[in-house]
Amino acid sequence: MRNQETYETIAYFKDVYDIKWLCELLGIARSAYYKWSNRIKPAYEIKNEETLETIQTYYTHFKKRYGYRRIRDNINKYTGKNHSENYIYRLMRAYNLKSIIRRKRPGFLKTKPEQVGQNILNREFSASNPNEKWLSDVTEFKYGYSGQKLYLCAILDVYDKSVVSYHIHHRNDNHLVFTTFNKAVKKNPGAQPMFHSDRGFQYTSRSFKNLLDKHNMVQSMSRVGKCIDNGPIENLWGIIKSEMYYLESFDSSEKLTKAIKDYIKFYNQERIQRKLKSHTPLEYRHMAI
Q: CA gyration radius for the chain?
């Protein structure tokens, strides 16, 4: 319909501004607007309005983290609808509903390793069962006006992309990584996965290699300067930061720690993934156990 977007703009702001003023501002005759507003709406327009309301509900629920693909997946999964991607995309674009754009992950300083493992994983980012391949890494967060730091270490299961364990600490040290590892072993007694990481000093220490040997785990390491060798967990950091960390500011370690914990819980229990057939990581994991 001609002037459709203009009419919709007036309808959107009519409870805030005077309709006469809006019509004059946008160059529309009031009679034309009233004729449009009093018409019998076609079925497709009613459907669009209902779908848009659902989109806005999910968009708000997920704190503007999701774009049209994930919004569509969630709507279809939890409402039983079968909307196409293009349909959801058109509605979200029309109302400027966009996901947050990621920022690049900062680099890290190189350290001299005590011992180095081979890249046994070799970018084979698939597994037949849980606890077959674990990936681990450390990332950094800042809070407060002076840029104080918190470090997050996590272990990711390649099979279901779930966060098996994690630990948050004020220092990037052996305690951070060793605690994360011990939590994973405690949750999964008897597990003997291939353990892949980058060449961070904790992972290349003899103490950590002894810990892996104690639990009969094979060590695999990324090649120098090849962060994609640990791609899935690098992707996890990008998700956490773009969907949570960059959306807020944190003035204390307590607030940042809580936000990280809440997001990891959300990621494991609520965030559906297409590669997991539109299941959450823990849903997919429990289906296999």
A: 25
